[in-house]
Design brief:
Shape of chain A: globular
Number of domains of chain A: 1
Helix content of chain A: over 70%
Number of helices of chain A: 6
CATH topology of chain A: Methane Monooxygenase Hydroxylase, Chain G, domain 1
Largest sheet of chain A: none
Oligomer: homodimer
Radius of gyration of chain A: 18 Å
Strand content of chain A: under 5%
Distance between the termini of chain A: 30 Å
Chain lengths: ~200, ~200
């Protein structure tokens, strides 16, 4: 699921910035794969709980996996939403040139953060889980940059471009939040240490 | 949790439309109550799974309750985000007068839909669960109205107001989606009938 969610956001960013309708359609269609994996995971979880009746650490692991599945499915949805914006504005590019670098960086941070989430799960890797929070801070910073560009009173590229940038910015930011939530689930599993779920920066509102 | 999420969105709408900073702060602070209930629910769920080792319908019920908790917590977050927009623009009103009626209607639909979600849970009420989907369609329609007002080329009230309307519209629409997800969880529990999770209308992008 982390690989599919990573591939989806990477392709969605390309579709958006290169105005590639075919690629956008492809991202939209392939979201169903992540949804199907999530359903499988849920069924497998309920099956495990019923048959094996796990307790203690095993039980926590099963419950955490189910929550991670929910976050990863949502990351797939958010990548799909980015692709939907690309499709909606085709043959125009939804992203105005002045925003291009920032959106490109958001795409790069999203790819980095989901790759780390995959390593965290595969290696039960607490250090990477903590490093991933730094990427999330970077994402929040980029998200604020977008807002500042839109509301500093100098925006002159039309309301449609502003609406698109607002939504796309939020999709990337939420994508990163869900990756943080996946990583924190693993930290909780390994250390028992609880941290509040990732929250979008209040400044974004 | 449905009562708290309902009270939060109702107060957030009032705070937003009446430019009431005190009420906005109040909504923001009280979100912690819903978060705490969700943590309690999760702990109670894990405890139940460990001690009682439920199977069949009981197991499905426990797993569904945990998912409903996740949706309801998120609805609280979204109400908080609406209140954060009100606070950010205070003493100005974030919502331009031309949007006022539409946002007011979104608030009303949100209150209606969360009240129905509460009835669905309390009464295991399949009919109300289905009626709630009609409210969600109404919410999607209002959400489209907002987008149409913003991108029809006639918007002349500034970019900041457009950004705020974009975000607030999305918060209400997502709030309704999560309420639909709660109701569908109950339908699944009672009938075994699976429906894909609620999705934001692709037109919103």
């Amino acid at each position: 699921m982390t690989r599919l969610a990573g591939s989806a956001i990477s392709r969605a960013t390309t579709a958006l910035l290169d105005t590639d309708l075919h690629l956008a359609e492809n991202v939209i269609a392939s979201d169903e794969q992540i949804d199907a994996l999530r359903r499988e995971l849920d069924e497998h979880t309920v099956d495990l709980l019923a048959r094996q009746q796990p307790v203690a650490t095993d039980l926590r692991m099963v419950v955490t996996a189910m929550k991670m599945g929910s976050d990863l499915e949502r990351m797939g949805d958010l990548a799909r939403h980015v692709a939907e914006v690309a499709r909606l504005r085709y043959p125009d590019c939804a992203i105005h040139p002045v925003m291009r670098t920032t959106i490109q960086q958001m795409g790069q941070v999203a790819e980095r953060i989901v790759a780390k989430a995959g390593s965290v799960i595969a290696g039960r890797d607490i250090e990477t889980a903590r490093a991933l929070e730094v990427d999330d801070d970077e994402m929040d910073r980029l998200h604020r940059d977008i807002f500042n560009m839109l509301v500093d009173g100098k925006w002159q590229y039309g309301t449609e471009a502003a609406v698109d940038a607002t939504l796309v910015g939020r999709y990337y930011e939420r994508y990163a939040d869900h990756a943080v939530s996946v990583a924190r689930g693993l930290v909780y599993l390994v250390t028992g240490e609880f941290r509040a779920p990732a929250r979008p920066d209040s400044e974004e509102a």
